[in-house]
Each structure stands twice: as structure tokens, then as C-alpha cells.
């Protein structure tokens, strides 16, 4: 019997709503999964991609992740993972570096046997590159086999990847596919194989209303009375509360009615989303957001659907107009270099007179392949010291040029205001793989 925790889409480093508290929430959720793994004594933690929200995570996010992975390693629990579309780079992957540090195993076409189960991996591959895949996996002699993959697979929502093709063309007969990318947890049977998503570990958008969690997967012929070789159990995580308030205004009702409705909920340290419909008087979203914050909310956003429906406009909070720009950028298939250029042009930290030189330097940095692992190992050393103080056919088929997911994925870029020049020696700058390769 093999018992593993199946998780994914942890999106560490995501400053949702530009909030440092929410940024910490995403790391805390991953740490909670690891706590459960250690306490329960599972055989492995299997991560199905998007460990990080960005291919250029900040140093604090790297250090926090290393600290959590070291705790898992100290407990003797292997961390098996694949690369997701949010964190994928053109060169080496962060997961490769964690593997070199002895903190993770990157799954691929060779089996990694844990207990009596062989695990294989399939990183995210853009739709345009999938015709190149041959799903050729090395043989194994374990009792069970599982494929860990990142993508939008059938028969789940927004699917663009034929699951049955993967299973029928594969050289290995899989008992389960443990997936990541879709933030909604779900399980189905395809070609006599269990296919499952654990969902994200934190709510990355307001549409993710269900509670967050992960899967406990048991590979055992007797797990379900001998009828199944795989048993999948859903486990919940205690994450930041989200409060959803719907207000339908009648004629003559306005902001006072909205406030009255908001008061009916416990807003303490919660992320609050208020949606207004009906025929009532005009309401100022910013005033309601301020009221909710005064009532104890961590963050509040108000959407007046009457105005949105009338104007046909995008849902944009006046309290956070930067989100409109970021959402639009996420719809574009921009390369990593293009995103660097965009940040240099838009971010306030770069004076207009220096934009041309900054763009030139960042493109040159992208082309520079010098460096080594020593610098990253210094990060791991800093993480150890900071714990008590201040602190390409399959998997390598290429990097997605943009976030191709149409599901409820969080923004692919960090807060532009926080995106300073990457400096591996700085504790508050973003770090790219190119700084270490």
C-alpha cells in the first residue's frame, strides 16, 4: 500500500489584491499541507505544478519554500513534483534546483518508485507543442503506476487536453492521473483510470467559492473492498475566509441597505466580495469597501452589476484599477522577455529617461546564460540561517509563452510596483532562473 498527499496550484508568491497578508496566506497554505503530511506519516507529497505563481519568485518566497521543504525532508517524506505553466522558464526550472539541494524530485518519463507505486511526470506543455508528444515512458515493475501532470484535461471544465489519448498512447498503464492546473477539485474515471484534481490550496480568485484542500490518494487493491486499486479522499484546509455578500436593491434602496446587508456577516480578517443587483439608487463602491474594512475585513471589493450590465464593462474595482491592466496582460500571449519590457515601461520605479537603458539591460540579462548553482545554494544557506532569525518532448517540451489557462487562474505576474531589478543578494527583489544558470 502507498499513501500520498496529492496537491498543486499553491501559487506561492501571489500578492492577491496587492496584499502582503494574502501573499503570506499562499505560503501558509502550502505549509499546512506539509504539516499534515508529516503528522500523518504519508509516503510522499505529490505536487502537480504551479508551486510558484511566477517564474521570477521573490527571494523571500524562495526562502520560505526552502524552509518548508526542508521540514518535509527532515521528516523523511519525499516531495515529488512537475512544473506548471506559471513557474516554467526556458532554461532550468526551480524544481531542478530544489532537486540539486536534495529537497525535491522532478518527475519525468523514468519511474520514481515510492512504496509499491511508480510515479511519472508530465510538465505543462502548450497546446501548440502537444502534437510533438509521444507519451513514451520507461517500464516499471511496481504494483501500481501514477502519472502526475499539469494541464486542463478532459472531462473537466475548460479542457484542452484529451485524457484518453494520453492514457491509450502511453507505454505505461496508469492506475491514476494526479493533475494540477484546474483550481476546482474534481474526480472522474477515464478509460478505467482515476483522474483527479485536488484544486488550489488558496482561493486565487473570487470564483473559487468552495473550501480549499488536497487529496489523500491510497494505492491498495483492498482499499475499497477489492473493487478498486485506487482510493481518493478529499481533505480540507483551514484557509483565509472569503465572505460573499449579495444585495438586491429595490426601488428607493441604496447604500444604507448595502451596509445593513454587509453587517449581517462576520467580516473579521476576511476577504469580502459584495455584489449589487436590482433597481435601487446608485451606490459608490469605494464607500462600501471602506465600510467593510472598518467592520474588520482584510480586503473588500464591491461590484455593482447594474453598472457593469449597463455599460458592458469589465468588473473593475475603483479601489484597485491596477487589476484591470494586469488582467488584460494575462490575456495576451506575451513571452517572458516581453513581460520584462512591459514592466520596465510601466513601473513607477523606472524614470522615463531610463526606460530605454533598462529595457536593453533586461533583455541582455535574458540572453545571458552565465552563472552557476553556487548563488542559489547561498539562498538555501540564508534560509537555514533565517529560520530562527530575521530571517523537450514531454516534460521539457518548452515553456508556455503565456498563461493559456482559461480557468480561474490568478494573475501570472506579481505586483508591478514590487518588481524591482532582480538581485540574488537582495532580500526583497525578484529572482530569475537566469541569475543562477
From TrEMBL:
Keywords for this protein: DNA damage, DNA repair, Endonuclease, Exonuclease, Hydrolase, Manganese, Metal-binding, Nuclease
Annotated binding of Mn(2+) 2, by residue: 50, 85, 150
GO biological process: double-strand break repair
InterPro entries given in the database record: Calcineurin-like_PHP (IPR004843), DNA_Repair-Maintenance_Comp (IPR050535), Metallo-depent_PP-like (IPR029052), Mre11_archaea-type (IPR032885), Mre11_Halo (IPR054879)
Domain of life assignment: Archaea
Residue ranges of the region described as Disordered: 371-437
Binding site for Mn(2+) 1: 9, 11, 50, 183
EC number annotated for this UniProt entry: 3.1.-.-
Chain intervals with Acidic residues compositional bias: 371-380, 398-421
One matching Pfam family: Metallophos
Requisite cofactors: Mn(2+)
Regulation (activators, inhibitors): Nuclease activity is regulated by Rad50.
Cofactor: how bound: Binds 2 manganese ions per subunit.
Domain Calcineurin-like phosphoesterase per the UniProt entry, residue ranges: 3-183
Job of this protein: Part of the Rad50/Mre11 complex, which is involved in the early steps of DNA double-strand break (DSB) repair. Mre11 binds to DSB ends and has both double-stranded 3'-5' exonuclease activity and single-stranded endonuclease activity.
Complex formation: Homodimer. Forms a heterotetramer composed of two Mre11 subunits and two Rad50 subunits.
Entry similarity comment: Belongs to the MRE11/RAD32 family.
This protein's name: DNA double-strand break repair protein Mre11
Organism the protein comes from: Halorubrum xinjiangense
Gene: mre11
Amino acid at each position: 500500500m502507498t499513501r500520498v498527499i496529492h496537491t498543486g496550484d499553491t501559487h506561492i508568491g501571489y500578492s492577491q489584491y496587492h496584499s502582503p497578508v494574502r501573499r503570506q496566506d499562499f505560503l501558509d497554505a502550502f505549509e499546512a499541507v506539509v504539516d499534515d503530511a508529516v503528522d500523518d506519516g504519508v509516503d510522499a507529497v505529490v505536487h502537480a505544478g504551479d508551486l510558484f505563481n511566477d517564474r521570477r519568485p521573490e527571494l523571500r518566497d524562495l526562502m520560505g519554500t526552502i524552509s518548508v521543504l526542508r521540514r518535509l525532508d527532515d521528516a523523511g517524506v519525499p516531495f515529488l513534483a512537475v512544473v506548471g505553466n506559471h513557474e516554467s522558464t526556458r532554461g532550468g526550472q526551480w524544481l531542478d534546483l530544489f532537486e540539486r539541494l536534495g529537497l525535491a524530485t522532478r518527475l519525468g518519463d523514468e519511474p520514481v518508485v515510492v512504496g509499491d507505486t511508480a510515479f511519472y511526470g508530465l510538465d505543462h506543455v502548450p497546446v501548440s507543442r502537444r502534437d510533438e508528444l509521444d507519451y513514451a515512458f520507461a517500464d516499471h515493475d511496481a504494483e501500481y503506476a501514477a502519472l502526475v501532470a499539469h494541464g486542463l484535461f478532459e472531462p473537466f471544465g475548460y479542457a484542452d487536453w484529451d485524457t484518453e489519448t494520453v492514457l491509450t498512447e502511453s507505454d505505461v498503464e496508469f492506475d491514476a492521473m494526479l493533475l494540477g492546473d484546474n483550481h476546482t477539485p474534481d474526480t472522474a474515471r477515464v478509460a478505467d483510470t482515476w483522474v483527479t484534481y485536488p484544486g488550489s490550496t488558496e482561493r486565487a480568485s473570487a470564483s473559487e467559492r468552495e473550501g480549499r484542500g488536497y487529496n489523500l490518494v491510497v494505492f491498495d487493491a483492498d482499499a475499497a473492498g477489492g473493487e478498486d486499486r485506487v482510493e481518493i479522499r478529499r481533505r480540507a484546509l483551514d484557509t483565509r475566509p472569503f465572505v460573499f455578500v449579495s444585495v438586491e436593491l429595490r426601488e428607493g434602496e441604496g447604500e444604507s441597505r448595502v451596509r445593513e446587508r454587509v453587517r449581517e456577516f462576520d467580516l473579521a480578517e476576511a476577504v469580502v466580495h459584495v455584489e449589487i443587483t436590482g433597481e435601487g439608487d446608485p451606490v459608490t463602491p469605494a464607500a462600501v469597501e471602506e465600510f467593510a474594512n472598518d467592520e474588520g475585513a482584510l480586503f473588500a471589493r464591491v461590484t455593482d452589476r447594474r453598472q457593469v450590465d449597463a455599460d458592458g464593462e469589465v468588473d473593475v474595482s475603483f479601489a484597485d484599477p491596477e487589476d484591470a491592466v494586469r488582467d488584460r496582460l494575462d490575456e495576451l500571449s506575451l513571452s517572458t522577455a516581453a513581460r520584462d519590457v512591459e514592466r520596465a515601461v510601466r513601473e513607477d520605479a523606472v524614470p522615463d529617461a531610463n526606460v530605454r537603458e533598462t529595457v536593453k539591460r533586461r533583455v541582455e540579462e535574458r540572453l545571458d546564460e552565465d552563472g552557476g548553482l553556487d548563488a542559489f545554494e547561498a539562498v538555501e544557506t540564508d534560509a537555514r540561517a533565517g529560520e530562527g532569525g530575521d530571517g523537450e518532448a514531454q516534460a521539457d517540451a518548452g515553456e508556455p509563452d503565456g498563461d493559456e489557462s482559461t480557468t480561474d487562474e490568478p494573475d501570472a505576474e506579481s505586483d508591478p510596483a514590487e518588481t524591482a531589478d532582480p538581485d540574488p543578494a537582495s532580500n526583497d527583489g525578484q529572482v530569475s532562473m537566469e541569475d543562477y544558470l
